[in-house]
Fold this sequence. Notes:
four-stranded parallel β-sheet, alpha/beta, globular, Rossmann fold
Amino acid sequence: MNNRVALITGGMGGLGETISTKMASAGYRAAVTYSPSNKNFDQWLREMEQHGYKFHAYPCDVSDFDSCKNCVASVVSALGPVDILVNNAGITRDMTSGK
């Protein structure tokens, strides 16, 4: 089994979810981040577990250096060094977002 760790920022939705599930399917221990304001992260984790995925999830505000630093420290402490980092988190502020 692959012991490599993949950290996917914004890994709970859209493209990030697809990347997370592909990494997990490839045998990586996948850690995903979610916005600290996300109150539904535990529901997403349960749904993914029902589909056979076991993710490790960490709150992280990617616009804040200290939040990122603390998140990575938590991942490294729990899972070991990060082998793959996918910087996927972001926000959309264009005409497609409906705002």
